[in-house]
């Protein structure tokens, strides 16, 4: 991985509107706006938040539960990680990575392009930092990122080290396109761990050239996302090309658009291997056990929660996030199972409000979601989304694939203390500035009196040397 660049001293442009600070790491850039969800005081969940839950479900009009993307599939665990590291690693691709990022051409199949067309056409309002260390707000599509000259898109992070805001949405689409570019990371390698470091380093270089992370774990988060999006792309290829009665040789003779034949052969060989077929059967059975789909769509739980926090001015816990992401656009639950669970969560949340419990938005094994749904599975925490696992939230253990080495509760508490100190320091600085301005005004008044006496009485008075 390339060494970290020097942290810039930034002059903030007047039109910058969004906060770029995480509450879990020291500030790397100045705030372009006074509001930030990371410093919101703890409070109960009043009726305001309850109304926002219904409004949020209505706002997600483009998110429907008809997608096979189910709630319980939100996980940090990569099913491919169980595969052999060495399988197909000898099949080195014939393509090479081009470091000229402006000339990237993705090997997307047509159906994948259709799936992504809306996201790739969307404009994202993001903060961009230039070589002149000035932050500006720009509207960008994913393809525009490649054409940024001497600028980087700033990615915000919440206190759980998850990407949030428009920047996180933009990099999500961009990483999806990068993951489908067979020149960046070829499809020959069935396991992410078997991908040679040279390809991963090239991907890191592409990311570093175009994005500025407001978190020390930003690159790790981005690479984890790239890994998962590559897996999703491979799964889409399989869905489009391998049917129930498909024959290996037939599939091999119809390679997907943009994928070299040698890489396609490796993919097809793996899909028709006994190991892959067994995994497919397990996944099919697991999907049958999923009780309810979520309606988040491409908007991550972290981003959706962040939007709700901006709207309410309160911390949003995973119970509220669960409710919003399991309702249709008309405010009804996606199915009866989701309704039973959601209403039970709402009931517990109401009881917590009635008892005066303070809501800090922190997950726990005994919160509403924990009480209703029970123990978490390995690799993810319900209602939290990508990048959060039980060991990171509930214990001091290191979360696999992430950089945390301390309990998240401790980290957040320490971060809150630091933020409080920074707030006090700002108050002191403002008071000192005010006192300095008053001294300057007093000195100016005295100087004017001296001048008046000299002019009217002809008396030469000693010069004022300062207060």
Unreliable stretches covering 5 or more consecutive residues: 4-48, 60-91, 95-115, 396-416
Straight-line N-to-C gap:
54 Å
Level of helix content? 40-55%
What is the makeup of the main sheet? 6 strands, mixed
Query: How many DSSP E strands?
Result: 6
Summarize this structure as a short list of keywords or feature phrases.
single chain, 467 residues, 3 domains, 14 helices, 45% helix, 6% strand, Transposase, Ptta/En/Spm, plant, Probable_transposase_24
Question: What this model shows, in words?
Answer:
There is one protein chain. With 467 residues, the protein is mostly helical. The chain folds into 3 domains: 11-39 and 71-289, no CATH class; 315-402, no CATH class; 406-467. It is 45% helix and 6% strand. The protein has helices at residues 47-59, 110-121, 165-179, 197-210, 218-241, 248-252, 261-271, 274-289, 301-312, 318-324, 336-354, 368-373, 390-393, 408-457, and strands at residues 11-12, 124-130, 134-140, 151-157, 163-164, 211-213. A hairpin with a 3-residue loop joins strand 2 (124-130) and strand 3 (134-140). Helix 1 runs parallel beside helix 10 and helix 10 runs antiparallel to helix 11 (336-354). The radius of gyration is 27 Å and the shape is flat. The N and C termini lie far apart (54 Å). Residues 4-48, 60-91, 95-115 and 396-416 have low confidence and may be disordered.
């Amino acid at each position: 991985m390339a060494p970290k660049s020097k942290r810039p001293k930034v002059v903030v442009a007047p039109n910058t509107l969004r906060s770029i600070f995480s509450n879990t790491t020291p500030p790397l850039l100045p705030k372009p706006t006074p509001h930030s969800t990371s410093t919101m005081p703890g409070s109960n969940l009043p009726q305001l938040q309850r109304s926002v839950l219904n409004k949020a479900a209505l706002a997600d009009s483009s998110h429907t539960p008809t997608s096979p993307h189910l709630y319980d599939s939100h996980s940090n665990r990569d099913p491919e990680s169980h595969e052999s590291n060495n399988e197909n690693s000898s099949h080195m691709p014939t393509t090479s990575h081009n470091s000229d990022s402006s000339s990237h051409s993705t090997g997307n199949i047509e159906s994948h392009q259709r799936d992504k067309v809306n996201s790739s056409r969307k404009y994202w309002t993001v903060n961009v930092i230039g070589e002149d260390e000035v932050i500006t707000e720009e509207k960008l599509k994913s393809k525009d990122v490649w054409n940024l000259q001497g600028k980087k898109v700033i990615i915000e992070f919440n206190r759980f080290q998850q990407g949030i805001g428009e920047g996180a949405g933009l990099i999500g689409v961009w990483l999806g396109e990068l993951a489908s570019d067979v020149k960046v990371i070829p499809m020959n390698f069935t396991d992410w761990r078997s991908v040679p470091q040279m390809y991963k380093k090239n991907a890191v270089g592409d990311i570093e050239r175009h994005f500025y992370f407001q978190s020390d774990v930003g690159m790790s988060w981005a690479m984890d996302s790239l890994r998962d999006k590559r897996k999703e792309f491979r799964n889409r290829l399989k869905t489009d090309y391998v049917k129930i009665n498909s024959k290996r040789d037939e599939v091999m003779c119809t390679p997907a658009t943009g994928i070299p034949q040698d890489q396609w052969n490796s993919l097809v060989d793996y899909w028709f291997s006994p190991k892959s077929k067994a995994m497919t059967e397990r996944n099919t059975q697991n999907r049958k056990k999923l009780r309810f789909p979520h309606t988040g769509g491409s908007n991550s739980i972290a981003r959706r929660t962040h939007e709700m926090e901006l709207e309410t001015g309160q911390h949003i816990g995973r119970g509220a996030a669960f409710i919003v992401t399991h309702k249709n656009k008309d405010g009804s639950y996606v199915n009866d199972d989701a309704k039973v669970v959601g209403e039970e969560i709402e009931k517990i949340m109401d009881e917590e409000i009635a008892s005066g419990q303070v809501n800090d938005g922190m997950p726990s094994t005994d919160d509403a979601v924990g009480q209703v749904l029970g123990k978490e599975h390995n690799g993810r925490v319900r209602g939290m989304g990508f990048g959060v696992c039980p060991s990171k939230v509930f214990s001091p253990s290191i979360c696999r694939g992430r950089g945390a080495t301390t309990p998240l509760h401790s980290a957040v508490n320490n971060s809150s203390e630091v933020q409080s100190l920074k707030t006090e320091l700002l108050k002191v600085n403002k008071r000192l500035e005010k006192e300095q301005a008053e001294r300057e005004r007093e000195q100016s008044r005295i100087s004017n009196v001296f001048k008046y006496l000299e002019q009217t009485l002809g008396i030469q008075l000693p010069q004022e040397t300062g207060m």
